[in-house]
Each structure stands twice: as structure tokens, then as C-alpha cells.
Amino acid sequence: MNRLFASQWPLATNQQVNAGQEFISLSDITGFLRHYVGTIAACLAAALLVAWFYNSTTDSVFTATTQILIEPRLPQHLQDGGEVNLSLDTAQIESQIAVMQSEKIASMVIDQLNLIEDRNFNHPETPILQERFRKIKDIIVEALGVQKSAWLNALWDHIGLGAAESTTKLTDYQKSRLGMLIFRNNLDVRRVGVSYAIEISFTSADPERAAKVANATADAFVHEQIDTKAEAAREGGAWLEQRLQQLRTQMNEAMARAQAFRSRHDYSVNGDSSDGGGVNSEPTLEELEVTADTFKKMYESFLQAYTNSVSQQSYPVADARVITVATPPLSPSAPKPKLVLAFAAVAGLIIGIGLSFARHSFDWSVRSPRHIRDNLGIECIGELPYTFKHREFGNVDEVARHPWSRYSQSLRKTRTEISLAETNHPVRYLGLTAVSNNSQKSSVVSNLATLYSMSGLKTLVIDADVRRSTITTRLVGRSEILGEECMEPVRLNIVRGLGRRFDVLSSSVVDAKNLLVPRNMQAFLSEISSDDPATDELAAYDIVIVDMPTLESGADDLIIGSVLDGVVVVAEWGKTHVDTLRELVRTLQASRTQILGVLLTKARAITSKHRRVAARQDAFGSRQSVKSDHT
Q1: What is the per-residue pLDDT across 120-171, written as a single tens digit (0 to 9) for each?
Q2: What is the rounded distance in angstroms from the CA atom of residue 375 to the CA atom of residue 239?
Q3: Is 1 exposed, middle or buried (0-12, 13-18, 19+ CB in 10 A)?
Q4: What is the spatial distance between Cα 256 and Cα 239, in angstroms, rounded to a whole number?
Q5: Using CA of residue 524, residue 527, residue 528, residue 534, what is the dihedral sign?
Q6: What does pTM read for this prediction?
Q7: Which single residue of 169, 364, 403, 470 could bond 442 by disulfide (Cβ 3.0 to 4.6 Å)?
Q8: What is the rounded CA–CA span in Å between residue 262 and residue 284?
Q9: Burial class (CB in 10 A: 0-12, 13-18, 19+), 285
């Protein structure tokens, strides 16, 4: 009945676990963050450092703003014609903005405020990188109080962070173009919504200068409109005056001809109306009067236009007016330290998480039971966490010294998983192997043997890892036993581990007796499996754990796994590569070795599978121990 329970219960549990592991759980996210917390923290610190560097080396600037309202005006000849709705379209507003941003307006403001000769204005607002580092140097030197250190000043000069060198004297043209560039870069003109209002902003290191330049720009635009209208009126008046002279002459000539016609008292100025029946080609009196009247009306119309033109020259009116005067701002507009730090923090976190995700995507080391199942097709039978920070991982006597630690509890669950493994017969001969010699395989073997022996099972550990005899060195005390010193039969060379409840067969005996050959190992296991009633010490072992060679030691030595009931593969979390682990699994499968699963060591976080079934596994393990003790 117990055997049936052992073969069916893990299958149902695994189906539930597999169904719950198809999505990314909260534990996966927290595990990811815990693993890459260093990368994320480093990116965040770097981003905050860049933000501090920017805030410390960027001068504060102030922005002053004024507003202008553009008013549409009707032409004079439409103002007397009743109500006419005339509005400005977007193109007209954009045209006005282009005028405000033109070099003509800039030149007017620069000349008015004499900005070319202002040193604080006529230099780039954004310092170059060398200037920024020089400012950081000044901050550090001032904080340490070593301004007068000769050798330190010599060092600054050597690396190019000494006092700023005097710049080359610029020509008047270069100063003019530099001032124009600075002015236009710091000027911002934009429309306020969909209204006729236009906002003019200027940014400067001096709040007073920012307000003066903004107001001067608005005034320059208004005056430019007035000057343009006055100039247009002058040009139009000159043309109208010339045209009036022409019309006056033409009107006088037409009136003189009509008067001459009347003085003759006939209908023709030249020739007789009764002449030979010919066609009369001369104008009539009516035609002459109409012509004279037409020229008179044209003259009067142009005279009225000329009068208006003269009035506009005397009293020009602009189509724009200032509705808000710029005042010196009280606080700088840039930089904004809090905003820069917040942006840097968000950017640092995004970059850190992105970099961590990239590392995770290209990292093919084993990190979760699902990773093992998806890539190898076998289950993870346990996850062993780190032990206490002040001790090395997986001491050979961890479960004896700290029986209630997370490591010990996890190893108990692993032992239960091994007992519940679906094999043709109960697991009595158990092997443990790994990819490399740097794994924690031998520590797991020692602690697992301690658990079996503590539950009352007679346990034997065979140190078959002849190239790295950790078990023999730590638990036997003799690293070598010469071949001729080995007793016959091999079971007579079994010794009790130092301070342990289980027996050990050293690696030197395994090497001397060629137990890495499957048939020799099979014969030895048969030898220790039979009870000898003559001596209690040589009674059959309940469990035999073989510390097998690793893949790094050679694939040929792994053939002994074929004579065992099952083999557990030990992998290290975050270090064992999936490809090498897959190669080890294929090697074991090629030798027809029964693989019970993978044991993941140094796990950063225990998955929900082992938390969920922990109580059942511990209860079942306790029942198995009671049964063994009773037997």
C-alpha cells in the first residue's frame, strides 16, 4: 500500500505544480530582482551620479516672459462699408512669429541693450565638458580646503583642469555672429493656444537681463511694425503725389477741351458737320464733359488717399500691443534638481532592469526547476539554499550541527522525493554526480548519508570520485591506501566515518579494486547486500550512497551509474550551464542509468513547489523512518 502511495502521489503533485508553473509568478519576479539587484543598483547609482554631476556643473538660468496681442485691422475702404468680420488665420500668426524671431528684431534689441559688449551675455550658456569637470574640481577643492596646495594645483594643470585660459580675441564680426546666435537660441516665441496672443520668452543667467531682453523684443516688434507702416505710407504718398500731378494735368486738359467746344457753339471742334456726308471722328460735347468729369473724380479719389497717407505718416498705429510686461523671475527655470534626480532615478531603474533582462536572456545557467524541466525533460527533486552567511555552503555535517536550518529542511524534502521516485524497485543504491569538480556534490552526499543514518537506516558511503576524494579526506583521515594493503573481501575495508553514524569506503580502495568497472561494482554491491548472521557489523546495508565521478573527470567513469537504482544530478544555481548539464544527462542516459532528477544547490529562492508539498513530504518521510526503525 505504501509502495502504491509512493508511486502515485508525486505524479499528482507534479501535475498540479506543472500547471501552476506555466505563468510567471510573483516568486519568479522577486527572485529575478534579488538576483540582479546589484546590476539594478549600479545603474541607479550611475544615473544619480550623472544627475548630480549635471546639477552641480550647470549654471542656473531664469526665463522672463511677455505677451503681445495681434489685432486685425480693416482697410480704410472697408471701414465705411458696414460690419465686416475680418480674422487672422494661422499663416498670418506664424508670419508674425517669424518676424519676431528674425535677425532684424534681434539686431534692434542687441544694439539697444548693447549686448555685444556684455561679457556675461556674449558667451555660450552651456559649458563644455572640460568646464564642467573644472567646476567639479573647484567644488571638491573647496570642500577639502586645499585651494593653496602647490602639488595639487600642478596636478590640475597637468590633466587640463587648471585655471581657464584666456580665449582668443574675437573680431567684431565674430562677436556679432556669436551674440546673434546666443540671442536666437535663448529666445522662444510661441502662440498662446488658438488666440491672437503671442508669448515671448527669453532665458538668461541674470533675471534682470532676461526681463529687459524680453520687453525689448516686444517693443522692437511694435516699433518695427510702426516703422514699416510709416515707410510704406511714405512710399505710397510719394507715388500718390506723382499720380496726382498726372491726373491734375489730364483733368485740366479735358476741361479745357470741353470749354473750347462750348465757346464755338457747334458740336465739333474741327470741321463742319454738314461736310460732304463724311463720318464725323471728333468727340462731342457730351463725351468731353464725361471725360473731364471722370478725371475729376479720379483726382478727388487719389487726393483723399494721399491725405490719408499723410495722416498715417504723422500718426502711425501698430496692429500689435503689449498686454503683459516681463518682470524679473524669482526662481530659476533650469536646471530643476528634483526633476533631474527623479528622471535620472527612473532612467536608471529602466536601464538597470533592461540590462538585467538582457543578462538573464543570454544567461543559460540553471536557475529554476522549471528551467530544468523545460530544457532537460527531467524534474528537479530539491532546492538547497545557502547556509548561514558565516559558514561555507553545505558543510559535510550541516544537518547534524543545525538540524532545523533551511538547508537541513530542504535536504529532508529531497530525501523524501528520492524515496517517492518512480522506479522498478525501492532506491537502495543511490548515486550522486555533477558536471564539474567544483560542485557541492560531496557535501550533499555526506549530509544525505547523515539524514539516512539519523532515521535508523544502516548507511554506507562509497567515495568513487577518485580524482577528488573529498569524502575520504574529510571523513576517513587517510587520503591513500595502497593496493596491497587492501583486505579481501572489499567489505573488510569499510570504516566508520569520523564522528559519523554511517560507514565509508575510501576512494583509494575503490581505485585499487577497480570498482569503477560496472561488473566489479555490481559484485561488491551484491556482497554488501547479503546479511551475514555471524557478525552484526557486516549486516546488509539499508542504503548505499555512491559519490560518483563528475563529467569533468571523464564520461567513462559514469558508467557505474548503470548498476545503481538511481542517480541524482547535482547542479549549482546560476553557475551550472544548461548545455553541460544536458551533456551529462545524455551521457547517463546512454549508459542506461536511471536518473531520479536534478538537485539544485545554492538556490537563491525556494520555489512554491517545495513550500506547498513540504508538510506532506515531511509526514511521509516520518512514516518511512518509523517503518524502518520498526523493521
Answers
A1: 787 655 556 667 666 666 667 666 665 566 666 666 565 655 555 545 577 8
A2: 93
A3: exposed
A4: 26
A5: negative
A6: 0.56
A7: 470
A8: 10
A9: middle
